[in-house]
Amino acid sequence: MLNQIELSSLSKGDSLDHFFLVKKCELRLTKNGKEYLSLELGDKSISSPANLWDDVAGFKSIKNSLAVGDVVKITGSMDEFQGSPQIKIEALRLAKQSDEVTPKDFLPKSSRDLKVMRKEFTSRLDKIINSDLNKLMNNIFTEDRFERYTSVPAGKMWHHSYISGLIEHTLEIVKICDLMCDIHPQINRDLLICGAMLHDFGKIEELTFEPVFEYTDKGKLLGHIVIAAMIVNEEINKSPDFPENLKNNLLHLILSHQGKLEYASPVVPKTLEAITLYQADELSAKVNAYKNTMQNEIKSGSSWTKFISIAGTDMHNHGIENQSSENKTLFD
Amino acid sequence: MLNQIELSSLSKGDSLDHFFLVKKCELRLTKNGKEYLSLELGDKSISSPANLWDDVAGFKSIKNSLAVGDVVKITGSMDEFQGSPQIKIEALRLAKQSDEVTPKDFLPKSSRDLKVMRKEFTSRLDKIINSDLNKLMNNIFTEDRFERYTSVPAGKMWHHSYISGLIEHTLEIVKICDLMCDIHPQINRDLLICGAMLHDFGKIEELTFEPVFEYTDKGKLLGHIVIAAMIVNEEINKSPDFPENLKNNLLHLILSHQGKLEYASPVVPKTLEAITLYQADELSAKVNAYKNTMQNEIKSGSSWTKFISIAGTDMHNHGIENQSSENKTLFD
Amino acid sequence: MLNQIELSSLSKGDSLDHFFLVKKCELRLTKNGKEYLSLELGDKSISSPANLWDDVAGFKSIKNSLAVGDVVKITGSMDEFQGSPQIKIEALRLAKQSDEVTPKDFLPKSSRDLKVMRKEFTSRLDKIINSDLNKLMNNIFTEDRFERYTSVPAGKMWHHSYISGLIEHTLEIVKICDLMCDIHPQINRDLLICGAMLHDFGKIEELTFEPVFEYTDKGKLLGHIVIAAMIVNEEINKSPDFPENLKNNLLHLILSHQGKLEYASPVVPKTLEAITLYQADELSAKVNAYKNTMQNEIKSGSSWTKFISIAGTDMHNHGIENQSSENKTLFD
Amino acid sequence: MLNQIELSSLSKGDSLDHFFLVKKCELRLTKNGKEYLSLELGDKSISSPANLWDDVAGFKSIKNSLAVGDVVKITGSMDEFQGSPQIKIEALRLAKQSDEVTPKDFLPKSSRDLKVMRKEFTSRLDKIINSDLNKLMNNIFTEDRFERYTSVPAGKMWHHSYISGLIEHTLEIVKICDLMCDIHPQINRDLLICGAMLHDFGKIEELTFEPVFEYTDKGKLLGHIVIAAMIVNEEINKSPDFPENLKNNLLHLILSHQGKLEYASPVVPKTLEAITLYQADELSAKVNAYKNTMQNEIKSGSSWTKFISIAGTDMHNHGIENQSSENKTLFD
Amino acid sequence: MLNQIELSSLSKGDSLDHFFLVKKCELRLTKNGKEYLSLELGDKSISSPANLWDDVAGFKSIKNSLAVGDVVKITGSMDEFQGSPQIKIEALRLAKQSDEVTPKDFLPKSSRDLKVMRKEFTSRLDKIINSDLNKLMNNIFTEDRFERYTSVPAGKMWHHSYISGLIEHTLEIVKICDLMCDIHPQINRDLLICGAMLHDFGKIEELTFEPVFEYTDKGKLLGHIVIAAMIVNEEINKSPDFPENLKNNLLHLILSHQGKLEYASPVVPKTLEAITLYQADELSAKVNAYKNTMQNEIKSGSSWTKFISIAGTDMHNHGIENQSSENKTLFD
Amino acid sequence: MLNQIELSSLSKGDSLDHFFLVKKCELRLTKNGKEYLSLELGDKSISSPANLWDDVAGFKSIKNSLAVGDVVKITGSMDEFQGSPQIKIEALRLAKQSDEVTPKDFLPKSSRDLKVMRKEFTSRLDKIINSDLNKLMNNIFTEDRFERYTSVPAGKMWHHSYISGLIEHTLEIVKICDLMCDIHPQINRDLLICGAMLHDFGKIEELTFEPVFEYTDKGKLLGHIVIAAMIVNEEINKSPDFPENLKNNLLHLILSHQGKLEYASPVVPKTLEAITLYQADELSAKVNAYKNTMQNEIKSGSSWTKFISIAGTDMHNHGIENQSSENKTLFD
């Protein structure tokens, strides 16, 4: 278990006795022809550059073997170069088994308790009444897949881009969808909830997240939407009695959930459940993205972020006191 | 009180003894040079064309005075012309006071009980803790304005386009926003809920709905977003101590709630409350629009509507049985 | 075998003794309250409206049973109504088995010989050297699927919208792709040709064409791109040794072949074969669409078509003599 | 009064005895751990970087207090670093009251005489015949507001981005609008001229310009269009007899003057005056933007600027002699 | 010389003794099989439909020879069909030479005096000081071309779509450009004015206007921009000493004057003169288009037009009295 | 004749005795005030930075005269600076006539044999049967123009951006067009092939390529499309009997070949030949662009390029063995 001050909380001059994940690693030459390693080191808060000079003990033994994804133990201090923080290394060694640290300890994680989220998910899944859907969902969520499903981030950037981000995001959408079903009895609740649970399911094969978040070749060539559709199609075809109409409508929810062709959905929402899922996904994703951006990007001494190009605006943290934040379910 | 079978439920050959609202009215000539009135008559379900020929008793006295917005009593029958329903008039007279019918009886209305909705709104408003906002909201919602606010439709077409559509739509958004505040304590609940209640408030001056839904000159020249901002600005300026920061953020919610410049918002959402309001509005509006379109536009003998250009697709009513529709608040 | 002058070649006053396919059929009332059938009748050249009046012999027996997709025998003549051709019916009966006509006889067909096209296709398929691909293709193209594949049009409108349009279009693309492989040895020929043959394969389930071209529910909800990807995925998964890399690249060709997200491809072309296939498809589709539009839409007494909205322009038939049309493979 | 050679006219090696405005100021460390101030210094022509090293007299006393917006007196020389000009500081002190310089002296200014422009504006305003409008304009342009209105730039970048840029830009538009009224008597001259004078009026609250041009929180959250509409609305509401029709049309001019929704106008131009104002604004803004860009951005040794992304092109200064530039009002 | 009440001023029942231009002409059959001519007849105000029945004297002799562009003399009366005006023909004959009417008499014309406009143009042209440009302009504007240039409309629809519309539009642009040159001495006046005079010059070959406005084959295949560039290029090449730089800049003005690639300019404005010309053209075109649309399209009993799709809005005629319309050149 | 290892094949430490083309050249000062030349040197493979210090023999004599486009002889070695290759210069001299090297030796070239391409072109041109076109083409392709036409690249970046790129690209399009004519006899082969040969002909005046690829002033102000149209127009006008119809259609092919207005074509394709040419151009350009990008931009240790913004994607080199690459013209 990792127990050290986060990199983002350290200031110039602070001494270091830390484990870090190696995020970049290149062997270079100085102008004088000496070798050094140009590194990027980080924990789950942020990353910083660092140079490992050839006069640090053990440089020779490590220079050709150190790789992205390794965990290292550093002693040194926080320094600064051209106005940006930099790590000054006095000694470096690879982490040992006895250190009990793994690369996963250095990745950002959902702030929600994973066990609680897993329980919420399975408990909601048990309430699916439609027997075809209930059985299908249990077949899809094998133990292995559920393990991966509850670990994967919802994306590489922008929203829920941290370990267990997908399950956190999915549960939020499921709650929004259940509220919409309460208001509109015309919506088929079982169909919609299954669609919500499966909509980003393909990300378990689209993304890797150890040691760093990255897209797989399969993910780039096929996309998570089609990956999910192909898996669900195969699982459904194992039950010859699964209704054709239900199958097409469930697949339609997965395929159309990004709402527009230009957002990479091959079909647009054509059913009441499909439009609900798309808009619930948008609501959850955008609110999370703004929240995270404002937590990380507000400029010091300002209440504004820089211009965020994916949102097409800068963002403002007004700082007005939230007197009603504790009141839950006010609307009864 | 109007007590008659709805026009949409009548078939060819059914006899008529009905009140209708006059929605169009033009004096024309037949090829043979005879005068007749070309009419469109309707109730809150639908409208149909009708011709009033010069051999109907009283034609002369009525031909120059009948106007859009009048209520008339018809006897006759349902007919058909070139494959579409048409009303065949045998006798027509203007409604009298003793008939106790008003044009409003012929306009589509929200299916929710108005008293319940008014109570939900005021009850939620009372829970605003921030005293500046609570006082402001009570100043804005005078009795006259509240009367109009709870009558106006949310739009002329597409979503919630019926009497009391605005209050129904607003309450749905408020519920979605409260759920988002439950999940994300970073959202300022009082600010967001006030923004939600005011976001379409300008529609009370943008739209008229008696005898037919129409935009006012002011509505077309200024738009409901700026109308609302100007009223709220005036009400705030009556309280010199109202915090400037809170004022700008509340106005920002109104101004940015359509989310994109090309949707007529003069600024895009820049705060956490603003993005939440925009996406909650989208969720409520789109689900309502799809629901209404599918109720009214499914082609007979098909499970599909025609192509709906505003949605960019045709829509599908799959007809799968909704086994879980009765379960409320499943997610606990 | 149908042997009659095509409807498009008939003029006002010509007498009729023809079989036609019923394309629309509605029972209506005249102003005087008499029933009649409002029909659209056609062969593979064009369609024309026709009214079947109640004084035609046998009207009563047929009025409630006649349906879209029936073939009827008409005697009568070509008439005109408000400047457009109309069929005047003097007698009408349903086609009998002994007439030896089927609805398919009335659908537009590719002008190329189907047997020749089938032979071209199988002969080219046999030249696939990569054994994984060769085996896969033979598994996919079962007799049943090949039968359907060689019948289906490539679309409902715009290009190759006639029986056997898909196979004609595919063969043209294959030829273009082979030429590009001759010029660029960096392109993987087997992979590209298989992608070309499979790119629109999903249309066998997306479209029906008897008695009229129409999209299936499955086609509208999933789209032909995903349908094809799901079938190919299933067939590949039957061969556990099929290389993962090859599988992803073949599926990528199908998924990206419409070239842009807004054209409903869930991924854009990322490989050399994918960009070649997309551009070859465009070349074949656009040339065919312009050719057909100019054959059918040039205004009489003009060298121009009306404005064709899908192309964003009107089109011009310059009529310049084609002195080199007979020279083939000039470039040697 | 500032009397020194402009920074943009100095070359490498020139000695400096100049006042400059501090535009950026950060305390940093060298690689050797010594403190220095990383500065950006400028006058109204351009800005250059400069480092204040710790061996310059008085460094200690100034290092924690110097701030953006201060005016400093420098002695030193023009230097160069990696091909770009840099200021070499030998001595630095803060400006004293007796120096008689203010930050405003270092901001770019309109090249037109401010007194002349103020006179042109008030003289044109006096010619408004419509008494409602004339009175309103005099109420809006209080002394304080007029002072600010005649100082503020028309924007932060692109066009008229200098002190008194707004009044210069407005007068140009007024002249263009008067010409259009001469040609088209259908245009309501008083209404149009008042709209022209008020169209960017909200910039007095949207922008600050001392010590540097910046958007205010209010400006970012509401935008200058709505700010202006709210002020004008309040001023009109003080005169209960002001005609409703005139009010809506004047507000419409302000709201629609950016011409398109995607340019942040909440309504598009719907009247003859509105379309005239939008196009006159475009003409003035674009010509000024091109003129300024070409004055500042032509690459040395070339007749072309770099690619200007806001214009979507590079720009060309052809250098063809302007033989008719002196002729005014040629068209009589 | 035509001396008759305009068609747009006639009401139902008025008797007719008028010359009209034939704008459409088709021989058709009635339901009973009788021949009649379906016509569209008009003067320079508007057009109306008319049917010539076979019982009108001379029907037989005229039915196969009457053609679009013929002028006919009608006696009859104004009638109405399905709510729209229609001409009822009692007698019809072709116009004779002695009638002294030509098709041109029936086309809409500029409201400005053509002689005055020709004089304004030549007088302004004489003030071009640059001798290369002055000589070039005189070579381009041969008597024949000037005749055509001063007759052609500026477009088929939308703005200045009437005889001599191009010269009226050009003179307005020239005045705007001269004003901009007065304000900005950096603009090369001679170059800009020549560009303004030539910018739509290609319309003399792109459009025909007798008997009706229509695009030529050349106009559709090449467009007026390239037609003008090719003519100007040829005229310049006759003077070997014409400066290359001046040539490219003059051609650039013609090519870029539509401002954006998507408006069919093959290059965007890259010089100060080019951006001025584009924006002046926009100002003149849009103001004229709005003015004409409001004159012709305001719905009766309303102050609004229908939705005008090319403008993306409906338009409003506010009817506010124009107290300053008589004041010219107020800004002195 | 240049005979040396390509710059792209050299590694850190390799000694240099090479000729290079000077691509950038600036005289600068070090921090210590010493002069040096900051250079970019390259051959046809790639370019690298290099500094010429003042202690290299002959620095003084060369520092003010060395210019972009010069060829120099370097001795030194390959070095590295901040992770990127850099040339370390020990001695430098200008190339002499006796070295027999020219700037052209250092530009990237088509990999096809130029003589073979010239022969292919003239041989295909001789097969134009239409005598008007055959004569015109021979008049256009004078020896001088053909020399330039066969040297110029097809673009500055993206596709065929190397010496003789235009002729290579054109021949590929001609082959594709001939294949389309084989398949579709409705296409006028002579017209299409002439259009293909001339479509990018204007690039001979739009681009310079010695010593570096650059756009001319004329190219930027007029564009290659209009340049080509003006030349072809002039050549056609020398033959008064050239058919007007053929002229307009040939010019239309040049003008419309970029397919869309936003791609800078002033008209869109309106004929069968025009749509064929546009799509054949796209096919050739995109395949070449992907091929070149993948050859140059695959990241080391990866099968992916970085994100290529002009293509809107990263690209993938799958590395699947091409078993059929040797088979030509498989489709017979």
What layout of secondary structure does this protein have?
Six copies of one chain form a homohexamer.
Chain A: E1 15-29, E2 35-42, E3 47-53, H1 59-62, E4 71-81, E5 84-94, H2 114-126, H3 131-140, H4 143-149, H5 165-183, H6 189-198, H7 203-206, E6 207-208, E7 214-215, H8 217-222, H9 224-237, H10 244-256, H11 272-297
Parallel strand pairs in A: 3-5
Antiparallel strand pairs in A: 1-2, 1-4, 2-3, 4-5, 6-7
Helix pairs in contact in A: 5-6, 5-11, 6-10, 6-11, 9-10, 10-11
Question: What does this entry look like structurally?
Answer:
With 332 residues, chain A is an alpha+beta fold. Chain A contains 11 helices and 7 strands. A 5-stranded mixed barrel of chain A has the order 1-2-3-5-4. In chain A, strands 6-7 form a two-stranded antiparallel ribbon. In chain A, a hairpin with a 5-residue loop joins strand 1 and strand 2. In chain A, helix 5 crosses helix 11, helix 6 crosses helix 11 and helix 9 (224-237) packs antiparallel against helix 10 (244-256). The longest helix of chain A has 26 residues, at 272-297. The two termini of chain A are 44 Å apart. Chains in contact: A-B, A-C, A-D, A-F, B-C, B-D, B-E, C-E, C-F, D-E, D-F, E-F. At the C-F interface, helix 5, helix 6, helix 10 and helix 11 of C face helix 5, helix 6, helix 9 and helix 10 of F.
Gist?
The first copy, chain A, has helices at 59-62, 114-126, 131-140, 143-149, 165-183, 189-198, 203-206, 217-222, 224-237, 244-256, 272-297; strands at residues 15-29, 35-42, 47-53, 71-81, 84-94, 207-208, 214-215. Chain A is an alpha+beta fold.
